[in-house]
Write a structure and sequence with these properties.
Blueprint (H helix, E strand, L loop, with lengths): L1 E4 L4 H9 L4 E3 L9 H11 L3 E4 L6 H4 L3 H22 L2 E7 L22 H16 L2 E7 L2 E2 L6 H11 L2 E5 L3 E2 L2 E2 H16 L8 E4 L6 E2 H14 L8 E5 L27
Parallel strand pairs: 1-2, 1-3, 3-4, 4-5, 5-10, 6-9, 7-12
Antiparallel strand pairs: 8-11
Helix pairs in contact: 1-7, 2-4, 4-5, 6-8
Length: 270
């Protein structure tokens, strides 16, 4: 049995399309604030494969809710990983570009030194460490700038504002690669199905997933507006103004370079 945590998130919603027979649990059914209860739930369900798509992702709010975000992003995934080790279960876990310090302009590889610049990134890094320390059969996929037709995300926000305002200001000094949750789900489902069928799979470990070109948030926003107009959307916006991060301060510092590269061949999980 495949068990997926984080049912209502963007990646898990996409997974429901490609893994229809998996058991999906939301935060009410599996509250990550209570690690012991998650362990008990796993004893009851006895899955063979676990996909952890649950996470605390409010980057700015995490600066204040430190213990809550640490429990959800690190402590509970650690408990899940130890359960997997004890029960011969494979774990697929999603992490983030925010584990890196975000300087320079070279894409980050899987074995590059980590050094988060905000608490959210620190909690996700601690989650990775907990999982790896457990010794369980774990795949950790680092992804960045996730979007989808569901939930709250950058494209939806830009389109809403583009219908309300004539001018938008978007940062143009933070680089990364947008990631469609459906691409993550497709690759994840392929791995899971190969594991179930005992087909050859890459070795467990940390992997970076990237499907689109590197760009800034400003370029991403401009592309969103251009495509929406081409599709016939009635938009009010006339200008998307590029600004620096210093002009758009946030409670949590953002990395300037979130480009994820990989030391592995492209399409390894395709």
């Amino acid at each position: 049995m495949i068990l997926v945590f984080g049912k209502n998130g963007q990646v898990a919603t996409a997974l429901q399309e490609v893994l229809p027979n998996a058991l999906f649990l939301d935060s009410k059914e599996a509250d990550f604030l209570f690690p012991d209860k998650i362990a008990t739930l796993l004893d009851e369900k006895k899955p063979q494969i676990i996909i952890n798509a649950s996470a605390y992702t409010a980057v700015d709010k995490a600066e204040d809710e430190r213990e809550t975000s640490l429990t959800i992003n690190a402590k509970t995934p650690g408990v899940i990983a130890h359960w997997c080790k004890q029960n011969n279960c494979t774990l697929l876990h999603y992490s983030t570009d925010y584990v890196f310090r975000g300087d320079g302009d070279r894409p980050w590889l899987e074995n590059d030194p980590t050094s988060p610049v905000n608490w959210y990134g620190e909690t996700k890094l601690q989650g990775e460490k907990e999982i790896l320390a457990s010794g369980c059969n774990a795949y950790i996929f680092r992804i960045s700038w996730v979007y989808s037709p569901w939930g709250n995300n950058f494209p939806k926000t830009i389109l809403r504002l583009a219908k309300e305002r004539e001018q938008l200001s978007v940062v143009n000094d933070q680089w990364g690669a947008p990631t469609d949750a459906r691409d993550v789900a497709r690759v994840s489902a392929k791995l899971v199905k190969n594991l179930e069928s005992k087909l050859p799979c890459p070795e467990p470990g940390i992997y970076h997933l990237r499907f689109e070109e590197y760009q800034t948030w400003h370029q991403f926003a401009s592309n969103i507006v251009e495509k929406a107009r081409a599709a016939g959307e009635n938009l009010k916006v006339k200008e998307i103004r590029p600004v620096t991060s210093s002009e758009f301060p946030t409670k949590a510092k953002r990395p300037g370079n979130s480009r994820l590269g990989s030391k592995y061949p492209q399409g390894l999980f395709e």
